[in-house]
UniProtKB/TrEMBL annotation:
Protein name, UniProt field: Lacto-N-biose phorylase
Signal peptide limits: none
InterPro entries listed in its UniProt record: Class_I_gatase-like, Glyco_hydro_b, Ig-like_fold, Lact_bio_phlase-like_N, Lacto-N-biose_phosphorylase, LBP_C, LBP_M
GO MF, one example: 1,3-beta-galactosyl-N-acetylhexosamine phosphorylase activity
CDD domains named in the record: A4_beta-galactosidase_middle_domain
Keyword Zinc: no
Amino acid sequence: MSYGLFTLPAEENFAAKTRELAQLWGADAIRNSDGTHLDEEVKALGKKIYSAYFPARGHNEWARLHMDETPMVYLLSQRVLAEDDPTTNGNQSDTSPNGAKTRVEIPFMKTFFEEQLQPYYDADPARYWEVTDRTTGETIPTERWHVDRERDTVIVEPAECFHEYTVTFLASIIWDPVEMYNHITNNWSDHEHAVPLDVYQPDTRDFIMHAYQEWLDANPEVDVVRLTTFFYQFTLIFSAQRREKIVDWFGCACTVSPSALDGFEREYGYRMRPEDFVSEGGYNSTFRQPTRPQLDWLGFVMHTVRANVKRMVSMTHEAGKEAMMFLGDQWIGTEPYVDGFEDLGLDAVVGSVGDGTTLRMISDIKGVRYTEGRFLPYFFPDTFHEGNDPSIEAWSNWRKARRAILRSPISRMGYGGYLSLAAKFPKFVDAVTEIADEFRDLTAKTGGEGAQGSLNIAVLNTWGRMRSWMAYTVAHAKPYPQTYSYYGVLESLSGMRVNVRFISFDDVTSRGIDDEIDVVVTGGAAGTSFSGGEVWKDPALVSTLRRWVRNGGALVGLGEPSAVNWQGRFFQLADVFGVDREISQTLSVDKYFPALTRGHFITADVPANETNAEDGDIEPEDFGGTVYATPRAMSDIGYDFGEPITGTYPIDGNVTLLSAAEGRVQLATNRYGSGVGVYLSGLPYSGRNARLLERILFYAARREDEYEAYSSTNPQCETAVFPKTGWMCVINNTNQPQSTDVKVPGQGPVHVDLGTSGIFWRKI
């Protein structure tokens, strides 16, 4: 059994079993979990000691005396309809129907969890709040509304009959959202509610630093301080029913205070409106195109956070300890993919690993000495309960993460939660034993470096590098139901034999496309920051990409790429993709589908006997002006293109149509000058779909002749090559045994039989 590179969670009164599992899993480090402490017997095991530290919570003795210095958030009330004033019995005969006046009451806390949030009245609501007529978009003058503080209600008078009104109000966050989540999930009844602290407030900031210094002095045995995280929680707001109401892992809504708003105005020369934070109820979701105030506020918060992170890291080093940042909880403002992160001096970043995409979100971070992944499942009672088998999730999580580790390795692994729960499940204990040993063996054979990539792929969206591997998701490995079609592309790329970077639309217009990029991938739902929305009206953007593809580049469009209704087109790069979308504006113009093409490089893995087609092209059938191909679509034979993008059609007969269903294009290619455009309606992750995307990329880059080298004949198995250490490996990405042949240059095909979740190594 190997040893090391593994961090074990521990808890009180569990020393003997902790010692046993530490030996079994090869742990060289031990950490405490949220709400637990390490016994002296555990500390004496001779392992490296990690200790979680919460800079902005867990100090209720201070917080209770300074409740005006908690972080705050702008909240948007529910919409309230202004109806006829009941005192007039609905008789408005003396007023025109469109000008009827009434009064409306808005009980703004009605939908929020009062144990988490409390209206903040100490700062004048007339200055810091905002009432909006949501029918007209008008901001209501302050003289037309007032606050009934006893009832947490805003009264608007006069109001327009049958208009909807909202109030955007400041609320103090009086219960730390993550601690609250753990409290609810684990049924804690004896834990005092943790009140968060706002580092922007000078007195509280001094307290935070003083308390941290005291903690460092009092814990000399700690080797690594796992700062969890720093100061501002991602947007996590609960409803009156104690359910999640607003969740955005990238959101910075919970960073507000009157003093910060005033400080921003002094620094930037203009004042943020409440509407700048709630954005019509969207709360500046990463899916929305960011506004200038939003980006300025993020920069303002980042400056505050990073200055204080750097101070705490220096204190940690002066105490002879390592500083590790947890990429989660209060991570807002640290921004690990924005220039300057490396200047903070952090030793490490640790984060939760949900799949390959979230593994890459951690492992691709630069400017730290090492990265660590916390694998799933958490040792929590929602998973570790009678009748459940946590080993199933453990193996599934490992298979997804392993693909990405082979491309961009993390330095260490571990788990989180309560060890006493995990110890009750022997099958899970055995699974972790195997996974930990395999991770160490993998690290040794690769030298801690990623496998070589054959192509350079750039993912293009509004956010670019700032949100590397952070697209389409709610949180770690949780795409929205509406975005699984797009998230699968990132998941496929995370473990593919390609090099991946993220670029923004601004990057393209200001600098063009770097020469070393082989393929650009872009797209998502229309109007989102990932698809681009209004940016596609910029001639500089579309002409730059057209020129690049025309001169030999390759552009893959996903879902609704370059989508904005402009100048008679919906996809502004329809000429590149060969595909546009009908949005009921040109229904009178007939669209014709060419025959589906079989025997194409991209679809070479599609079994011929599953197409219901003879060799060669298939003759189409005509259905009243629109032509549909007759063979079964690829989606009918195991390929998943996600949620349908209705109305997509080839713009002319030159398009190579590879899959279509029910009058919509699923997959098509288009020669564009010396380059290639590819349209793909969506691609949820699966082994088969990942193989399809890989073929798309090699074809688009016109590197088909390089595809077979080290390629697995079984799409459920993937290969990785490490020239520096002289190893090649083949992995089975399923929970069933698999067999495959791998074409090794100079050696011919190598046959490999792999057990469930298996891995095979061979010297090259």
